[in-house]
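Ops channel
N.P.: pipeline sanity check, posting one input/output pair.
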């Protein structure tokens, strides 16, 4: 193998990703029936129905990752005469093009999510749809489901509504440049200044999002800060894996989407239709969370309490911001996995412990997540007063399928990330690294390095090691194909 071949990291990782998708029960390639149907779709759907609002004149904008082409939502906010705010969130009307039980829908319902690996994205919907026909693209007329909220000056939701509308994206914005501008660390993006009134509108959106976040945190929403990773390629050679941290622009979208998902769940309940919800149950490892808090000099109550946990996290972040992402990672592991459930008329369901919300239905990313497309169909049925497009049995089966496949998708993403990390770490075998324990069970003990921020297995079977513990490890081996990275304690001889 030549040096040139060794640097074809992107191609190596794409092959690994394709293989791992299949191993995890996900379908990496679109079946012929999907491609045949795709060829028959000529363009976006338009409507002249009286019930469809024409909102194309509003200052809609999208804010997403720098390289995102599948635009699911637009936002705009207005000040009302009484000092309250009107927040509008437009969600791409994917169902207008992708009909239930069509070939494209059946494929989407198998993977249930787009899978984002460091080398390649396996989109839930073909790019002709997700990045064009069903994407809320710049300067393009698109059908959307609009979630309207009236929010008081204190951040309280006063009333809400949902309806169909035609919208047009006036500005395609990116998280990093918008956050830099809002924080005063960078110039205002040219695309903002080119649209009259957009600068003022975005500052108003930023202020409104902060109020929503503050109110949620007062109710016990957890202030967690994890480290996402983005690859740095030069050509096809992987040079680094760098943290992709949260920022002010991401917070705007996050807080607005949480609010929209709550409105969606309550709207369906008010129309006596079932809803498809995302829940995080009360944590089972609260005892270990209590121990971690004690290690940081704080005391938590005996029984799970999101407000007490949030106060601990706020105090910990202020005291040691550099270690806070590691603490967050430990808490997230101990909170447990989220899951999808179907809620039916008259039933009471658990809420989302980490977000401190009782009603939470995924609805804001139908190009990327099948649960959101399911919710969109339920909403459209509610809007016209028809019965649910899904039977109760269908919804229960779909909840199990979406939970399982989303978990498998995350495993694919993690495994390909580990393969990428193995590529970077291979020349460093024998070196020592600072790490934090992220998993400890009978299946093994796992640690995450500070840089690059990736996980590996700790060899040696240390039963006394707990999640959240910091230690020094030595890299002993890597397997790029399998994504295996093995360490031992730096002072321990196997």
């Amino acid at each position: 193998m030549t040096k040139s071949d060794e640097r074809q990291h992107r191609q190596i990782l794409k092959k690994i990703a394709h293989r791992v998708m299949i191993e995890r029960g996900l379908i990496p390639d679109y079946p012929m029936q999907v491609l045949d149907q795709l060829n028959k779709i000529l363009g976006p759907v338009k409507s002249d129905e009286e019930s469809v609002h024409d909102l194309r004149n509003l200052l809609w904008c999208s804010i997403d990752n720098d390289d995102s082409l599948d635009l699911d939502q637009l936002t705009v906010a207005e000040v009302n005469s009484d000092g309250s705010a009107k927040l509008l969130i437009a969600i791409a009307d994917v169902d207008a093009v992708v009909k239930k039980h069509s070939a494209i829908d059946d494929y989407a319902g198998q993977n249930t999510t787009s899978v984002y690996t460091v080398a390649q994205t396996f989109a839930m919907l073909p790019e002709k749809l997700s990045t064009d026909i069903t994407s809320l693209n710049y300067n393009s007329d698109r059908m959307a489901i609009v979630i309207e909220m009236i929010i008081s000056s204190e951040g309280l939701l006063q009333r809400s509504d949902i309806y169909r509308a035609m919208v047009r994206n006036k500005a395609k914005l990116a998280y990093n440049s918008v956050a830099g501008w809002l924080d005063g660390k960078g110039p205002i993006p040219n695309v903002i200044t080119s649209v009259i009134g957009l600068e003022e509108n975005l500052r108003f959106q930023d202020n409104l999002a902060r109020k929503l976040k503050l109110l949620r945190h007062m109710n016990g929403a957890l202030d967690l800060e994890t480290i996402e990773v983005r690859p740095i390629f030069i050509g096809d050679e992987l040079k680094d894996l760098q943290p992709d941290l949260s920022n002010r622009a991401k917070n705007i979208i996050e807080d607005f989407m949480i609010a929209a998902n709550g409105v969606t769940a309550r709207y369906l309940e008010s129309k006596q239709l079932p809803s498809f919800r995302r829940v995080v149950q009360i944590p089972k490892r609260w005892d270990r969370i209590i121990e971690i808090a004690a290690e940081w000099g704080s005391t938590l109550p005996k029984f799970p309490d999101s407000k007490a946990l949030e106060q601990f996290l706020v105090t910990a972040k202020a005291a040691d911001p550099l270690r806070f992402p590691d603490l967050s990672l430990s808490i997230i592991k101990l909170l447990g996995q989220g899951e999808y459930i179907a809620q039916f008329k008259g039933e009471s369901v658990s809420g989302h412990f980490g977000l401190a919300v009782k009603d939470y239905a995924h609805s804001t990313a139908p190009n990327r997540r099948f649960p959101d497309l399911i919710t969109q169909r339920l909403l459209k049925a509610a809007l016209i007063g028809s019965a649910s497009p899904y039977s109760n049995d269908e919804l229960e089966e779909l909840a199990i399928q979406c939970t399982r496949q989303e978990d498998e998708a995350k495993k694919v993403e993690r495994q390909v990330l580990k393969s990428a990390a193995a590529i970077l770490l291979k020349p460093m075998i024998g070196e020592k690294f600072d790490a934090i324990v992220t998993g400890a069970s009978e299946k093994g003990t796992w640690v995450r390095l500070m840089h690059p921020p990736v996980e590996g297995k700790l060899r040696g079977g240390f039963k006394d090691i707990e999640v959240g513990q910091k230690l020094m490890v030595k890299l002993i081996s890597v397997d790029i194909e399998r994504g295996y990275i093995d360490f031992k304690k730096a002072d321990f001889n196997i």
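N.P.: looks fine end to end. The longest helix spans residues 392-425.
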